[in-house]
UniProtKB/TrEMBL annotation:
The lineage of its organism: Archaea, Methanobacteriati, Methanobacteriota, Stenosarchaea group, Halobacteria. The keyword Secreted does not apply. Keywords: NADP, Oxidoreductase, Riboflavin biosynthesis. Homodimer. Pathway: Cofactor biosynthesis; riboflavin biosynthesis. This is 2,5-diamino-6-(ribosylamino)-4(3H)-pyrimidinone 5'-phosphate reductase. The keyword Oxidoreductase applies. It comes from Halorhabdus utahensis (strain DSM 12940 / JCM 11049 / AX-2). Its EC number is 1.1.1.302. Belongs to the HTP reductase family. GO terms for biological process: riboflavin biosynthetic process.
Amino acid sequence: MHVVVNAAMSADGKLSTHDREQVAISGEADFDRVDGLRADSDAVMVGVGTVLADDPSLTVDDPDRIAQRGDRGDPPQPARVVADSRARTPPDAQILDDEAETYLVVGERAATEKVERLESTGATVIAAGHDRVDLSAGLDALESHGIDRLMVEGGGELIFSLFADDLVDELSVFVGPMLIGGRDAPTLADGDGFLEGFPVLDLRDVEQMDGGVLLRWDVA
Ligand SMILES: NC(=O)C1=CN([C@@H]2O[C@H](COP(=O)(O)OP(=O)(O)OC[C@H]3O[C@@H](n4cnc5c(N)ncnc54)[C@H](OP(=O)(O)O)[C@@H]3O)[C@@H](O)[C@H]2O)C=CC1
Ligand SMILES: Nc1nc(O)c(N)c(N[C@@H]2O[C@H](COP(=O)(O)O)[C@@H](O)[C@H]2O)n1
């Protein structure tokens, strides 16, 4: 499986405010690029923290891109994936609507009644790991469902874990022309942080857009 992480951060490295309020860091051009990245993916993944904070849809907006997916024999929309150890995704979350297929990767200890409630929305629940989602096992299971190209949009906890488990192939970061601040505001890679074995990145491309800069890296 090929894993691409994409996110937008402020010039001071924050993904959102300290109270986890969503911020439009990208401008029109970058949001359009993100729409294209989604359209080129089999699935778009976030952590449950992002679902609870943003209630995203993670769908492709551009009708031409949706049509092109159909021409390729792909479903109109990429699937959505949530890493959600305790099945905390609200049953009325947008990510569970009928726009696209949704996979919830949960821990084996997730409460049965919560799992059944989420399955009743039509979502496919995959158990991987015990208390917390085992991302390597979860991605293997997704691959067996035909997901070969995975885009990950965040947030910082999930992105850190994917790097810690050596599961990321590419990273694109839009650095927007604003400061957000706040020592507790989410950053690109939160989690426990690395003390050694820091992931190394090879810079592939730099592009100015929306008054900021898009950085594209391959993971070495
Ligand atoms: N600017 C941008 O590009 C983006 C910004 N954001 C912002 O980020 C914030 C949310 O980020 P954050 O709070 O970090 O949440 P995440 O979306 O990273 O979700 C984190 C949660 O995912 C669950 N999870 C399950 N398995 C794992 C695992 N193996 N490793 C890590 N997490 C796992 C955990 O909850 P549990 O243990 O219960 O399963 C964890 O608390 C929001 O404010 C949002 O607006 C989000 C995406 C993009
Ligand atoms: N690329 C990008 N730029 C920003 O400025 C952002 N705030 C985000 N946030 C991510 O996009 C998701 C919302 O997507 P929907 O359009 O609602 O589907 C949000 O949940 C973050 O993952 N991304």
